[in-house]
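Quarterly update from the structural biology core.
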Amino acid sequence: MRNDTPLRALAHRIDAATPPTRDRALDALRGLAILGVVLGHWLVTALVVDTGTVRGASPLFEMGQLAPVSWLLQTLALFFLVGGHVGAKGYAAARARGESYRHWLAARLLRLARPIAAVAATWGVAAGAMLASGVAPDTLSTLLKLVLSPLWFLLVFAALTAATPLVAKLNPLWPLAVVLHVDLIRFGLDGPAWLSWINLGAGWLVPYCLGALWANGGLQPRKLRTTGLSLAVVGALATAALVLFAGYPASMVGVPGAAVSNLNPPSLAAVTFGLAQCGAALYFLSQLRRLLRRPFVWAAVALLNLSAMTVFLWHQTAMIAVTALGLLAGHSLMGLHTAPDSALWVLARIGWLPVFGGALLVCWAAYRTYEQQRSGGGSRVVSGGQPAGEAVERRA
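Predicted structure, tokenized:
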């Protein structure tokens, strides 16, 4: 008889509780996207204490040679790829059950609304308390921007989810053409700045439509690897050309103080870069699925997906909390309060990552229930708008 350790036993229970029809790779891609955002923010966002106030800064502005870090950690396209796939599949299944669009959409948006409401309420109280205690308005503005800025992503995701019946069969080339023309007008013809915000929807519609196309059978399973390789190569070459010859920034995330951002709103370079990422995901899909047959690997992915929105919404708060507690030391700590302008800062910041992780674990313990819907003594856990396997949590 095998004597399983508690962790091994848990991993095997999660593995056994997962429906055989579940595509584990979708959960893995979503988890990878969330972790990329979290690590990206923790590594390229600094809170500098300066003359009694706190301001935001980025090592990417001071050390442009670190731009390749953003290529690894800007993973939002993967989230929208999975969201389009899940949205198209979910809506088709709801229609097959005779469920109305209104009911389907309300259920999906509610899964996003609960954890967002928890963040908004907590920070509303915290902001009032900080103002009453004399915190400088500039400092409070910096903190609120860090905490609330990720919500734009969820608002766009919610809008695309609502539009799923309209965009599920839309070829990704159409929104890509919109992004191309918007950038041509704003950069090539010196068009109005407000025009760029059209890309906020069109830019993320590209991977969302690609995911829906995949779900609807528009990407032939036998040619999925070839399609993925083609997308990865063409997307990477297009991105390189835009950066080298068209003046787009090398960083794929926003950099405070930079004249142009690839992400706010999405530029053509960000979209082609996202297509390269999506192509790589499709190319390695079969290997990823084989890897996820291992109980330990799948258990880690499943557990992350049970609280993916909690992790996403509270990771900036965790960093802020550690930064604030660090002030109790009485002096600025390297990698936490100092300007991000040297390799020493980078090394120090990497050392702070486990501390940020510990603070995030505290936030997770306090707020993860808002991502769960209690019913009949069990838990329905959702992540990123997709049921993440209530059977997994009940049986594990």
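The beta strands are 46-50, 53-57, 372-375, 378-383, 386-387.
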